[in-house]
Amino acid sequence: MRIFLKVWRQSGPRAAGELVDYTVEHVSPDMSFLEMLDVVNEGLIAAGRDPIAFDSDCREGICGACGFLVNGVPHGPDPGTTVCQLHMRRFKDNDRLVLEPWRAKAFPLVKDLVVDRSALDRIVQAGGYTSVNVGGAPDGNAILIPGPVVEQAMDSAACIGCGACVAACKNASAVLFTSSKISHLALLPQGQVERGRRAIAMVDRHDTEGFGSCSNEGECEAVCPKEISIDNIARMNREYFRAVLAR
Ligand code: SF4
Ligand code: FES
CB neighbours (10 Å) of residue 216? Predict the structure, then answer.
């Protein structure tokens, strides 16, 4: 296949950016999207030009490192799929694709398609953990948890912190991310001791980082590669109000 790319190129946070055209020949349908970009970069390096900067690590849809907009859609057109798991067979010969970085105030641009998502790490640092001393590893069946509760908690825990929900939201809100982390621990017995303090600290950190508020559009859920439900946002709001009223 031949693919026409328009890629956002910006050499640094304060440099001017622009969309640059690339024509990619001989694209195999079996290539992943990032392998196609690897081939583009090999050509740029061979020509003595600056390769396109983009993030990736596992390339298996589990680490959350990858992510950019493909024709305006975070992670591209396949639902429930990270851009590293997107394959070129999804596209047609002579397709035109525009690649842009996540755009949000809380995600400052580093270079080209790479943004700094450490604001999400700081939300987790604010309370996304248990700090109770539980001694040695307990027996697996020592704390009995109903199956449906485990399923709900694990569904929430599936968030990989990619930031696509922020990129899709017109308010650049990170509440789908924050609520999945709060829900995961609020649902489990191990998370009860710090439950209220955690909800307040993580929501406050979310706001301090400059993410916007939720207006219930559902765009975040639609693009989330892990199909995190917006039910988590309703739970986060309940957790937050309960904690505020109790203090
Ligand atoms: S909620 Fe989904 S889109 Fe948002 S950071 Fe987690 S995995 Fe990515
Ligand atoms: S590179 Fe790890 S999820 Fe895409």
Answer: 8
